[in-house]
Amino acid sequence: MMLSRSITPITWRLSVRPLSTSSQLFNNVFKSYKFKDIKELIEEPNSKKVLVDVREPEEHMEYAIPNSINLPVNTAPGALGLIAEEFKSLFKYDKPDLTKELIFYCKSGTRAKVAEELARSYGYQNTGIYEGSINDWLKKNGKNVRSPN
């Protein structure tokens, strides 16, 4: 007699510590970026900084701040924990080096804070958040800001 077992899928639940815990744990506070800082970064790119859009790909395709990469925090929360080859295969660009400063943005700032916390858990110690995110960027006419490239 053959017994059949039903297999229940495992659901992983991500638990993120509050930002204050992160700052205390790593003895470092994330940098807060404003519109003028991001505008300057677009107009004068800095190879030591990576602007990271953590919205979903559909949102990123609708409109994204120039020169940003897309790492969707909701559907790919472990992206920065991937090895470089897997990262490149999945996202089609190189994984940011741990020495780079990652500056996160989303629609309003909430997902950016979660992504910043996750980045720290993967060893990225130099992080920032554009707290106004895409809403602030568009409100302040950022869509007219162009990269020199």
UniProtKB/TrEMBL annotation:
Rhodanese domain residues: 45-146
- Write one Pfam family the protein is assigned to: Rhodanese
* GO MF assignments: thiosulfate-cyanide sulfurtransferase activity
> Membrane-crossing residues?
none
Q: Report the GO terms under cellular component.
A: mitochondrion
Q: What is this protein called?
A: Rhodanese domain-containing protein
* Species this protein is from: Maudiozyma exigua
